[in-house]
Design a protein that fits this description.
This protein has 302 residues and is α+β, with helices and mostly antiparallel strands. Helix content is 30%, strand content 23%. The radius of gyration is 18 Å and the shape is globular.
Length: 302
């Protein structure tokens, strides 16, 4: 995709859509804190506009009770799109980063990665300089009933720098394990079809959730110019054990980790979480919802 076409689309939406414009401008005033955990450089972002997503009720009854905000018929009139194969590329009106995109399937089909990995990889190849990410239906997706990806400029994802400056603790053909809390799989591929095969080989080894039929996971993907790379982050849980289901309960944390959080940018929507989280609490959060490197290595062993 021509980067000029994409930038003109984003600029046009900022000019014509007040909600997106206001929330994008507020990003310049977003507060951040930086915490190092081993080789990882973690950024805490205080972004109250993301409260709707963080606190979203994703149980079946709640999903059925609201109109799907990703379906074309239910989107705001001001929200335009770029037509891309079976998807619409949209500007996210509640951005975490500048140029934050949502790529929604044209049909109202469930959020599932199986059979759609090659689409994700093709997006990563088309959106030069962007990281495309997928939140599983029980791993941060606030619309688990509608297939979608998201994307933002790669520079905003600390996990890539960590990978580039850290050695894997286990290597197999086209797959590496990194011990970076939580542990991750890094998958290499020459093209989208090979990426689908390689990711599927990992998915087949992970336990599937009974309610969705797919493993709990987050995936981030980039095109380095020489190859495709995918970070697969297997998940054990949707939210940490002390998640604040009541947003007024400051004795618990209101953080629902999705791909961005797992990649090293933790989104906090309350001042108490932004100022109060410690390195140990962040480590605990990651290990409660993710795996350690020994567990991932054991998954690869026959």
């Amino acid at each position: 995709m021509d980067s000029n076409v994409l930038q003109r689309f984003i600029d046009r939406q900022i000019d014509s859509w007040r909600l997106a414009a206001d929330n994008t401008r507020q990003l310049s005033q977003v507060q951040t804190r930086h915490i190092d955990i081993g080789p990882r450089h973690i950024t805490l972002q205080y972004n109250p506009s993301r409260r709707i997503s963080t606190a979203a009720k994703t149980d079946t009854a709640s999903i059925k009770a609201r109109p799907c905000f990703l379906c074309h018929a239910n989107r705001p009139q001001a929200q335009e799109y770029i037509d891309w194969h079976d998807y619409h590329i949209l500007l996210n009106p509640f951005p975490i980063f500048p140029q934050h995109l949502t790529i929604a399937h044209k049909s109202h089909i469930p959020q599932r990665i199986n059979g759609n990995i090659s689409h994700m990889a093709a997006l990563a190849q088309e959106l030069h300089g962007f990281t495309v990410f997928y939140n599983g239906p029980l791993c941060g997706a606030s619309a688990p009933d509608h297939l979608h990806f998201q994307a933002a400029p790669t520079q905003y994802f600390p996990i890539w720098e960590t990978i580039d400056t850290t050695c894997p603790v286990h290597t197999a053909p086209n797959i590496e394990v990194y011990d970076i809390c939580p542990a991750i799989f890094l998958i290499h591929a020459a093209n989208s079809e090979e990426m689908e095969r390689n990711v599927c080989s990992i998915l087949a080894l992970l336990p599937a959730d009974e309610s969705t039929g797919e493993p709990k996971l987050n995936i981030l993907m980039r095109d380095t110019g020489m190859s495709l790379q995918a970070v697969v982050i297997p998940r054990r849980a949707h939210r940490p054990y002390n998640f604040a289901h009541d947003p007024s309960d400051t004795s618990r944390i209101l953080i629902s980790p999705a791909s961005v959080d797992m990649s090293g940018v933790i989104i906090s929507v309350r001042p108490s979480d932004f100022t109060g989280l410690t390195p140990q609490q962040i480590t605990n959060l990651y290990l409660e919802v993710g795996y350690n490197h020994s567990q991932l290595i054991n998954i690869l062993r026959p």
